[in-house]
Amino acid sequence: MAFSSAIERLNKNVAQPLKESIDKQPDFIDDDIQKRLELLADDLEGLNIRADSMLSREKPIKLFSSQDDPGMIQELNRELDRIVMAFTGRGSISAEMEARAARRLAQTLVINGLPRAQARHDSDSRDGANPCFQGTRQSILQDISAWIDDPNGPPIFWLSGMAGIGKSTIAHTIAEQEDKKHRLGASFFFSRDEADRRNPHLVYPTIAFQLAGFDSSLKEPITQALEQDADVGHAMMQKQFEQLIAGPLEKFKGKAETIVFVLDALDECNPASGAIEILARWALGLPKISNQVGVMLKVLITSRPELHIHDQFNYSSLRLISQSFVLHDIEKSVVNADIQLFLMGRLADLAVLHRVAQPWPTVAEINSLASSSDNLFIFASTTVNFIGGARNGRSLQHRLDQSLRPDLSKRTSTFAQLDALYLRVLETAENDLEETLPNSTETFRLVLETIVLLLDPLPPASLAGLLSLHPDDILTSIQDLRSVLVIPINSDSAEPIRFFHPSFYDFITTPGRGSERFFIQTTDGHARLAKLCLKTMGTLLRRDPCAIANPWSRNLDVADLQARLDRAVPNHLRYSCRFFCSHISLCAPGDKGLEQLVDSFCELNLLMWLEMMSLLGNIDDAINSIQLLKTWCQKDSTVKKLTADLIHDAYRALLQFQSPLRLCAGHVYTTILSFSAECGLTEHYASQLHVPYVVRGQPPRWDAKLITTDTQRNVLALKFFPDGKRIAMGDDRGRISVWSSSTGAEIISTDASDTHVSACSLDISADGTRIASSMRSEDAVQLNVWDAITGSRIFGLGDLGTFQRDTFIAFLPCGQELLCWSTNGRFSRWDSITGRVLSSHELPVKDCYRISVSRGGSRIVTICNTGLKIWEVRGDGVVSPLQVDLPQVDLSQRDTPRDQGNPVCEMPFLIDQSLLLIADDPSAYSRQSPTPATLWDYQKGLQIKRMTFLGFPQCVTICQESKRMAITTRELPMQIWDIESGTLLAHCGGDASAVMHAAFSPTEMAVASVDNSGVLRTWDIGPIHSGSNSNASETDSHPCRSVSASRSGKNVVNTCSGTRVVLWNIAEQTPLNLDVPDPSHHVIMSADGLYFICATAKNTVLVPSGWALYKTEPLQPVYTWSFVSMGPSLCATFSPDSGRIAVTVPAENLYDQKIQVLDIHHRQILWEAGLKGSVRGIAFFPEGTSLAVVYKHGYEIFNALSGGGSESSADRKSGSEFGSDFILGGILPHADGTQFLLIDDSRCFMTASYLVDTNDPSQITKYTESSRVFQVIETHTGHEPVFLVHDEMGNLYKKGRDYREFLCWLPPAWRFMNSEVPAVWAGSYLILGFRNGEIGVINVDALSHN
């Protein structure tokens, strides 16, 4: 064998596939393939050495051209074969590279889906940004570089300084420097002028996107995080950081020893709380990640020294892991020298460009300009840009002379010289434009004002569209403002026009800083912009702008939605939709022109705007916008009533239907107009309803409930933040969580504890930055202070061994002190900043049942076996009893109801410094009886008011200012009381379970409640304060317990808890009430609607316990089955012709059942038979000759026509036994006989159905199976069973064997999961029974296409 053949094999099996793969993926050789190639190279090099050794012997040519030494050639061949096999044995390199390329492409597609901002240091949005001029800022740059390289240095460097001093330029330089060293993990340069670059929720997704490109070992875990949770990019910031930043970094396996992050202009992050969370999140995560991975993580942060950032670096854990440098503290001579160097170099370049004779400018001129800068680099940079805007060398000198002109205003502010420079720039630009284009001043001012006040910058064409100008006119009018604005070269550029530096905005909008000639009055300007936005929407908004056609299509399912939006929705329309309400909120009230445009918008464009916001994925922005518009209406008394009503209705609809609107824009014309309360919005836009499918069930008005969110927590405490925008909770897992009060979304949550918490108290500091909590577990009480922005624990409060019982905690109004008090009489004051104990006392009380502390902490009331006492707390913390004249309360026999896991009811309750609310006779407390109470002025010993609460108070919440009180009980809806008048104002209940906790909002216009299942609700009690409680009054009517209908669905009967049975005629919508003592869950109507049967559990003269058969016209009982006990579950069914009814009743021994068949017309029992088990359903076959009885594990079939009164007289067919828990779903005709349907009910919700053929009962066929189907309504008439089902999101489907058709979205009150809402499908109608005793009706045929 020739050695050359082995070489050919090496080329064929290794070299050629490798070349082809690299040609396809030239930039993709990962670490594993690289190692394999290195091993191959080492082996080949060894073989080459051996071959060279052989070739160096005598007769080398003969060696390879003859067979004189075959053994040597064979040895080389074998060695080469071994190398080739060893390499290829590890896998086909081409296949591996193709597979990895496919995975890489998939990763790219996933990561490209991350929402992100164009905020990288070298992004297009920062066009014009430059690093430090060579030779300047050397000292600070060296300090930052040394900090990056120092393994013992802190992970965070904070560079602070006043506006214009050069922070961003330094940050840009460091980012560029570290990028060249391949150490820049990510950079984010904030800008208050751009919505995305000031949005804190885009910071971590943007950083994650950059990290994925920084190192391949980070790309895979980031991709996995997105694959596991596709919406993590839109999640709360805590979750974003953990899954997109911390998690991937902990898996880092790259070569870099240092990863640098640069966050510039953090003070421009909006809201400020976002900046605080960013800081705290890095402070918590960096040490942990660095220790775990062994790589240095360095974060450079720059900002102005704003208070909220300054406090984080000086008073939080950040101070322990950060290094700070104040840029404006550098010696002025050093900064001045740097500015001189910068001016000298940049102006020299201009001189060369314009062919100006040297030397230019002179040293004296350079020194004069540097001296005027006041150490602000932005002055020097703007000066250069201003001079550089000259068109020739002559005007260059003219502009230099203008820059050297002294400021004659004699202002002494920090920015006096900068202000004078900005003024010169504006004067020059306007004068030059007027010389070139006379009468252009108005356009200049219009364009400039618009650019300054835009809430998100626009490119020239979009700005022209908003202003109704030509794009070229836009650029022409501001061509000489390039020293203060970043302006694209071409009018068709997609790059926005924006400020060169934010100090220009401050100058032109702050009174007194510039000339009145250019001062922009922001309120007037925002009014003009609001009008422009409203006019734009009035002209361009269209229904179904993307031509989707099907209003039920989810946005996500429209494959080319983004392309359609790009074609149909210009940027200035998007801007108008997003920001018009913000502009309105920033202008003064009383603008008639603006009011007229808002009227027109509400009457013509409101629904189209909601549709557009859904398509753009901006529902959260829509909620915030409509809130701003609603507030504006409340401030402006001249707004039309129709306009105010439409805005209010849109606000309520957005809150109620935000979930479906996030998924599908068409819900605007289907769900909102169908399920909203009967209001101005549904009436005004009735003609735009896509399909009128809701026949009955629209509420007559908006109820008090604003939002409903399932927190999936057992909540023990609830509190509004001072801003009213957030709600804090504590739960039985020891978690403190924060939720949005407007959307119900979770914002942050602390980690769960391994210890079960049985009681919790919490309070929030006045500035909303800290949460104090007291949590009692089995053997201890823990008091902690938490960061309300990040959820991190700041510190715990001392040894709490003395706190053995329920312990409460509260901030004093000053915010510097905390009060802790316990029902064992322990009372302490703490420093809320340091956690130091200021004073501690133990009140001389034993067996204390109640303890309450006044808002200011100066009064304490205790109630125990020895009576009631009030204590005064002096400034030094000393506690002494007060002499008060109140009746003594005997509590010796008291048995207070308490629930495991909840603090005792806070009664007595100190309302203020003199008022005390106390129950008259606490020993008489019970959950069923009313609770009498008295309001006392304990300082005067006077009784103010008496009141009687309904039920036993579970929680009492006082509204301090308006003297309102919310009382929650076990059985009844939450009660809102007026303390001063002693009157009950309203109930807030509706579909809520037992409300456990409540809290008033700071404005006292809303109440938050959480029930025993963890559902958070907020309630609008604004109408109470305005003197009308029409919106807030909600009595929890007797809920529907069962519902049935005729075959056509037009006649309905339902039972309610209490004594109500209600008959409905769908066409006439006129209910007829019947009193039936304690009707059970069983009610069935005949197919013709002439009869119904219900069961009752109480004996009366008219209707005994048992079954009662009624005729509907006239309404009267016609037959009854009486028995002592209801016994096992009972069933009943009418024959298809409505002439017979079969019922199950208790047998003689009460533990068994029997079946009886009644001839309805002759009121005669035709036959009866004993049954062999607990019945789960009975039904006649369609022809009426057979009757199926389904047991828990089997079934029987009877001849429905056989007479006789004994078991033997029934024609019983053989049955079949099952191994699961079934209920009867229905009977269906079949081509070869008859089938009946069994529904699997073994897992609490129904997930599968089975068909049993009567010709061969042993054959059981699975018909359907679907995960997360909560309830099957009923089969419909036909040869194939068809279900109505809904998923956990409320999506209603018609489901058959081989298909599932979406019908509509159901609001929570309409969802029949777990049988909480009884429902039936009859004829064309889906009929549901509500908790308020009403019914809802949906025309299924109007929705169905099959």
Automatic annotation (TrEMBL):
Keyword Calcium attached: no
Assigned keywords, A-Z: Repeat, WD repeat
Keyword Repeat among record annotations: yes
WD repeats: from-to residues: 708-749
Pfam families tied to this protein: NPHP3_N
Residues forming coiled coils: none
Domain Nephrocystin 3-like N-terminal: 135-304
Chain spans, region Disordered: 1027-1046
Gene3D superfamilies linked to this entry: P-loop containing nucleotide triphosphate hydrolases, YVTN repeat-like/Quinoprotein amine dehydrogenase
Highest taxon listed in the record's lineage: Eukaryota
Record-linked InterPro entries: NPHP3-like_N, P-loop_NTPase, Quinoprotein_ADH-like_sf, WD40/YVTN_repeat-like_dom_sf, WD40_rpt
Protein name from the UniProt record: Nephrocystin 3-like N-terminal domain-containing protein
Organism for this UniProt entry: Tulasnella calospora MUT 4182
